[in-house]
Fold this protein.
Amino acid sequence: MKQLIFALLTLIIAPLTVSAAEAAKFEEGVNYQLISPAVPTADSATIEVVEMFWYGCPHCFHFEPLVTEWLKTKPADVSFRRVPAIFAEQWKPHARALYAAEALGSLEKLHKPLFDAIHVDKRRIFDEFALMQFVTEVGFDADEFKAAYESPTVEAKVKMATLATRDYGIDGVPAVIVNGKYRTTASMAGSQEAMLDVVNFLLAKERAK
């Protein structure tokens, strides 16, 4: 009986030991950075995860399938937002396109197809003219999309994305922000896959508070 109890305790303790070892690998200032001051989140009732990206970025393109898989098992207490990083005027058309598609309730109609068109098909879809041609190909009404693209609501969101790029303190993409308090990148985490391990660690850190 004692041997059975010992075996059961070993099975219980072993995963905890591994978990602690994994957690020890993630250090502030190494694998993630503290954002100071913290940036308010869109939904204070959840732990917010924000992906900062640009459609023209090949690293963001390769990160996207990993994010898609992670979202399939996203905990119920976690909310997720994609925010287009804006480091230059040339990045704004993509941001406008994202928010226009979002306003029309069809972000998924644009999101992966635009990534694929730029990085798989090698199409140069970087300005308003090229975007307007592209969105009709993926099923948007040209007039409706243009109206949304030029709307005050989208303009306001683009300005907010510009401020978020600054306030989160990122210097490249992709970057992931957890609850407005922490940022991590592939170079900090060690790889794009490890970025999401760091995100999960930070989510647990926030739940423990």
Summary: Residues 28-207 form a domain with the Glutaredoxin fold (CATH 3.40.30.10). The first strand starts at residue 33 and ends at 34. Confidence is low (pLDDT under 50) at residues 1-21. Residues 93 and 176 are 22 Å apart (CA to CA).
